[in-house]
Amino acid sequence: MKSFKEFKNISELPPKISVFPLAGALLLPRTQLPLNIFENRYLEMVDDAMSNNRLIAMIQSNKDEGDELYNTGCLGKITSYSEVANSRMLITLSGICRFNIGQELEVVTPYRQFQVNYERFSSDLIKGCGEEEVEREKLIESLKKYLEYNNLTIDWDAISNSSTELLVNSLCILSPYKTREKQALLEAETLSKRSEMLIAMTEMSMTSSPSTEQIQ
What we know:
By secondary structure, the chain is an alpha+beta fold. The chain folds into two domains: 10-125, LON domain-like (Archaeosine Trna-guanine Transglycosylase, Chain: A, domain 4, Roll), CATH 2.30.130; 131-205. The chain is 31% helix and 26% strand. The chain is built from six helices and six strands. It has helices at residues 40-50, 136-150, 156-161, 164-174, 179-187, 191-205, and strands at 16-21, 32-37, 55-61, 69-84, 88-104, 113-117. The protein has a five-stranded mixed barrel with strand order 1-3-4-5-6. Helix 2 (136-150) runs parallel beside helix 6 (191-205) and helix 4 packs across helix 6 (191-205). The longest helix has 15 residues, at 136-150. The radius of gyration is 18 Å and the shape is globular.
């Protein structure tokens, strides 16, 4: 598979995109999201993307509103792809830039397509943007408390070797919070605000019963 292209300007991004609605699935810039594709309409979407620019978008569905989607999602590029048994595909999406959806397009494809606008999130294309404003040690301390409270373990070497941007965004993706909370993390204006929001959610979550598992 070809190497991942880094987009320099939002003008390079497609104004019309295919969307994969999935509640609880979060994609953020420069993170990776593995997906197991099995519905026929999304198998077709992946096939179409692979024969074109390999770009599709993740957006959360709002279960409280039927088939309605949240207004903000994230564009991703398929950077890993394999066909497996039972007519399934395993893909990995690498996040590029968030967007706001506009008009839904009238299409003949079984999957939905939208006009989108990236202007609000143009800084997503700048690697590490806002890292210096994040209180990394405060985030790590909150993570330690959460792990101890729930009797969990984590790969601390991976944490130490991660950039601040990757650390914040990866923890958001792995977080066990509900769709609405994850959407708030996605829509946070800056990396530091996302980190602060994640810390607040983590502190609030430590009122539930502990569980025993490992964060990968």
